[in-house]
Write a structure and sequence with these properties.
19 helices; 531 residues; four-stranded antiparallel sheet; alpha/beta
Length: 531
């Protein structure tokens, strides 16, 4: 267990926090009622942490701890999304300011860093409200001050407890939350981020991080004459990056504060991220132009269904894969392919660019469980350009191939998505993998060189022969029914393997139609699909 936060620990935290928010995204979105009920806080926090994690991962392995902290803070600042995302980016920048120049951070150092980050975050908000992420951050920083003698883990455990306790009481400070039976969404996301840091320090990684569910709402008598909450408030969210001298920022804050609410301005060293809700989006942008140079301007309509839609000029499919043969198969079927490194993830910006270049109606095939959250994040970003996007929840390449087989660009987009999704989900998937070391599986201990048979991601068999394990996996998959079998072979498959599979099916299931492809994948020498 590390007793200090060094560069590698911060690297692990950045990626773990981004992944944890990706998994908790929908639960956090469901809590989002303040400051506007646009149900995007989870997505925004996920995108913000993804930007920070990708900036960190772009550094060379020899980068110093200060360089890692700075990359995390600046990456999140540049990629921050939404009110909560901008505030969290300021938290990360504040931690970088406090902890980056020091040696690897100890418990007292972390307490100082959290206190500094809390002050910076609160100062960045024009009109702070209690019962929000700011309240929970203050509580975490205050709690971290106590157990210095317990080291880094004790300090962090106290901070996490303080944050969770404050999260539960957010409805007491913000009646709107009580009215809807929720805690603050941004504060819930902050707790997930702190939980991820605790997991890195304790080296105990839970399967999921707690996000409080809705409770029974508390009835609140509305103010006389108040209409539906959804129709109140400014109509647009305006965000942009601003390159300006610090002396120009106070005048900008004053100008934007007079135009709307939810104003947050974060940054330093000449680069600022500006977020505000206004009715006059043009005036908010002009205020930025008067202060300095603006870029990455984003205007989001907050009114829902009346947002104008761009006309459709073409439909496309984007598929993600790591293997040459699979890439060729997807391209032959008409998909735009995004390559990912084996065992890694494609950059978010590359996936967004591929989506925007594929058409005005785009279906995305992630083809791996870990790519699904990234694809959803890319879709959110690409939708700002008016593209209509649906992420088909394919967890394996064979599901992606099955979905492409029923794709019909002449159908209505919604009908096409339904058909592709239905086919993908109806395709059971399996795989063969060779163990590279001793490990505990759901069916016992495996050792290096053992052949593992997997169905739907779970190990169901351990054997010595690839052909023998493959036959048993297929038999299990077909026991629940199936008429079409797809086999995709990769590297390391013995000669005659495909012919043996075909011979076994002819003997056992002559009614089954078999298709074999050369996929070239490395990690799983054989992939199976059963429809």
């Amino acid at each position: 267990m590390p007793d200090a936060l060094d560069g590698p620990s911060v690297r692990r935290w950045a990626r773990l926090a981004a992944d944890a928010l990706g998994r908790a995204r929908a639960e956090i979105d469901a809590l989002n009622v303040f400051p506007v009920p646009d149900r995007d806080t989870g997505v925004n926090l996920h995108l913000t942490l993804l930007a920070g994690a990708e900036a960190v991962e772009a550094l060379p392995p020899t980068a110093s701890p200060e360089e890692v902290w700075r990359a995390l803070g600046r990456g999140a600042l540049v990629g921050a999304r939404g009110n909560s995302g901008v505030i969290v980016s300021q938290v990360l920048c504040g931690l970088a300011d406090a902890l980056g120049p020091r040696p690897p951070a100890s418990g007292p150092d972390l307490a100082d860093g959290l206190a500094h980050a809390a002050r910076q975050a609160r100062a960045s908000v024009s009109r702070p409200s209690e019962g929000t992420i700011l309240t929970v951050l203050d509580a975490a920083a205050s709690a971290a001050r106590g157990p210095a003698e317990h080291g880094l883990a004790g300090t962090l455990a106290a901070a996490v407890r303080g944050a969770r306790e404050a999260l539960r009481t957010t409805p007491e400070s913000l009646p709107l939350l009580a009215e809807h039976g929720v805690v603050d969404a941004g504060a819930a996301g902050l707790c997930v981020i702190l939980d991820a840091l605790a997991a890195v320090v304790t080296e105990e990684y839970p399967e999921r991080y707690e996000v409080p569910a809705r409770t029974e709402p508390t009835f609140v008598i509305p103010a006389q004459g108040r209409g539906p909450r959804e129709t109140e408030g400014p109509g647009y969210e305006v965000m942009y990056l601003l390159e300006a001298e610090e002396s120009r920022v106070p005048a900008l804050r004053k100008a934007l504060d007079g135009l709307g609410d939810s104003l947050v301005v974060v940054g330093a060293d000449g680069l600022w991220n500006v977020h505000v809700h206004v009715n006059d989006a043009g005036a908010a942008i002009e205020a930025g132009l008067e202060a300095g140079r603006t870029r990455r301007i984003r205007v989001t309509y907050l009114g829902g269904s009346s947002r104008p839609k761009a006309p459709c000029t073409g439909r496309g499919i984007v598929a993600v894969t790591a293997a040459d043969g699979l890439a060729a198969l997807f391209e032959e079927a008409g998909a735009v392919v995004v390559r990912r490194p084996s065992g890694g993830m494609p950059p978010l910006a590359v996936l967004v660019e591929a989506i925007l270049g594929a058409g005005d109606e785009v279906a995305v095939l992630p083809n791996e469980p870990e790519v699904l959250a990234l694809a959803e994040a890319a879709a959110v970003r690409a939708r700002e350009s008016g593209v209509r996007i649906s992420v088909i929840p394919t967890k394996a390449s064979v599901q992606g191939l099955a979905a492409l087989a029923v794709h019909d660009p002449l159908r209505h987009f919604r009908d096409d998505v339904i058909a592709m999704t239905g086919t993908a989900l109806a395709t059971r998937f399996g795989a063969i993998r060779v163990a590279d070391g001793e490990a505990m599986t759901s069916v016992g201990v495996c050792r290096a060189g053992d052949v593992l048979g997997l169905i739907e991601g779970d190990v169901v068999l351990i054997g010595a022969s690839m052909a023998e394990v493959a036959g048993q996996v297929l038999a299990r998959m077909l026991s629940g029914g199936g008429e079409v079998v797809t086999v995709v072979t990769g590297t390391g498959v013995p000669a005659g393997f495909a012919a043996g599979i075909a011979e076994g099916l002819r003997a056992q299931r002559p009614d089954v139609e078999l298709t074999v492809y050369d996929g070239g994948q490395v990690l799983y020498p054989v992939l199976f699909g059963v429809e």
